[in-house]
Amino acid sequence: MPPSAPRAFAAVDLGASSGRVIVGRVAARSVALEEVHRFPNEPVRVGGTLHWDVLALYRGILQGLRAAGPVASVGIDTWAVDYGLLAADGSLLGNPVHYRDPRTDGVAERVGRTVPPGELYAATGVQHAPFNTLNQLVAARGTSQLEAADRLLLMPDLMAYWLTGTAGTELTNASTTQLLDPRTGDWAHAVAGRLGIDLSLFAPLRRPGDPAGELLPDVLEATGLRGPVPVVTVGSHDTASAVAAVPADTDRFAYISCGTWSLAGVELDAPVLTEDSRAANFTNELGVDGTVRYLRNIMGLWLLQECLRSWRDAGLEHDLDRLLAGAAQAPPLRCVVDAADPAFLAPHDMPRRIAEACRRAGGPVPQGPAETVRCVLDSLALAHRAAIEQAQRLSGRHVDVVHIVGGGARNELLCQLTADACGLPVVAGPAEAAALGNVLVQARAAGVVGGGLPALRSLLRATQPLRHYAPAADRARWDAAAAGPVLSR
Predict the structure, then answer these.
(1) Average pLDDT of 424-440?
(2) In the annotation, is 400 catalytic?
(3) Would you say residue 332 has pLDDT above 70?
(4) Which of 12, 263, 408, 446 gives the lowest tally of CB atoms within 10 Å of its CB?
């Protein structure tokens, strides 16, 4: 094959509401993506517990790899914190539990009585969140499945294991468990010991770019691929892959990986483990090439997605483009909620909960769907502003630009409102950042592209469509809203 000819890599990208298999064709000066298969990711409630439909996801991966055709390698990224438990013979002991399941309600407080929150943060650098893997494991203590488990695999590692028969724990995802020391990149043994968590359940750690095995014969048969086909470890936490694909040209940038969640922060060389950082609920997650993703989790477009679902379930189907056009004409900053409020974590009936939050705050309540959408987007823009301002103050890293990547980069109103709220230029795109980060780590492992993150980002700037948003000159309304009673508590 001529050196200049693109090579094909398959990115398996599983999100909270859908999964995709995307083929990236990469050469030294070009990268192009093609989505070859998309499939739903719909959790299932059984016996009062919310589960991931993990076999349907795996079937979707196999169908996608068949649609992909010949590829040089495969990489897998998914959401964080959730896991499957395997018996000694490698069989799955039960359907993985969804992070939105209420089994972890109150568990963080129980954990805090054994390992005080300040000590836990100083050791792991992970934000307080009810769904962290640590809390899930404490909640599962004494269950028959955990007692019988020989191996615990985080979701992307579980899929890689089924494809290859090789078990590993990818580092960027491991860093979200609240069981890893972000300074050393090794497990926080003292924390796990005090909480009775057996770290030997985890497979050996591996890093983006490491080999993760080859497709098994039955997988080759199911997909029609011709072996050997290697599986390459990528930034298996989808945000790690997305941040690797931020097309920044300096280190003075903030990022918002915007989809179901908004992950807003800065990229650092070392974690920030101060008490002020803990109080601000920032997390230190590891990224590609030894970077630290210093960020805050914000509910993100989950709020909008759930509003649309609630209206649809009520027989009120709404066209999103028309809703956004109506929201753009709605009064700005009339109704604002705290987008980080845990009250919005659970699914169902989101418009009612947003209205109730506005009512509790003593402000006006959105009148109709367009005003509700405007409330969501104004609130997200303010949450983005707060996270970026605090990330700069706590880390000492000043930023000159905000990069929005992921599906939210397509939402022009949200991008403009974020620029206005932050008072900074916004560069939107690429929308398929997680898949691009996934593909480029594979391509680098194959020798198609070289260099570190700056080289990968330079390739993205040269090949991906980006949109630029300048902030409005008048920030007074945003300053007043940010200082208002809803967001200054």
Answers:
(1) 97
(2) no
(3) yes
(4) 446
